[in-house]
Amino acid sequence: MEIKYIEATTKSGLRWNLSFIESNNQIPFDIKRVYYIYDLFDDWMQRWNHAHHNTKQVLFCINWKVKIWFDTWNEIQEFILGKANKWVYISLMVWHYMTDFSPWCILLVIASEVYNENNYIREYASFRKLIK
Ligand code: T46
After folding, report:
1. Which residue has the least CA distance to atom 8 on ligand 1?
2. Does residue 115's CB lie within 6 angstroms of at least one atom of ligand 1?
3. Which of 29, 54, 63, 97 is 20 to 30 A away from residue 119, measured at CA?
4. Whole-prediction pTM value?
5. 66-89, pLDDT tens digit by residue?
């Protein structure tokens, strides 16, 4: 189980910045899917609550900011996304959820697998049993 910030490489000029991350470089897998979550108007308390059997992801907050919590059995870590070159990487089997997002938040996710509901663990008790 691994969770870490990833810093995008940034090029800067007098009046510009350009940041990038690449597959198998800063992103430690081949990219199979990109999705994004936005218009979180009715969903202001907490979101997600799941882990993945076999999907690795990197997350980036394009707009505003969001707090993401990761639970790896013996530890709960909090990460804040909202800086222009800061991404977070989550490996397999990490329970995660987000809080403190605004309706204007846009969260971009790059994933190592295409969508498959069988990759999800959505019951916390099952997650705890699996990682024991
Ligand atoms: C995650 C967090 C950050 C698809 O059809 N294709 C997709 O690629 C995705 C991600 C979802 N869906 C469908 C499945 C559900 O019918 O969209 C609906 C909402 O998905 P879900 O309830 O899984 O959404 P979130 O926001 O709870 O979780 C998503 C990702 O599923 C999850 O992998 O880590 O965002």
Report:
1. 115
2. yes
3. 63
4. 0.93
5. 999 999 888 899 999 999 999 999
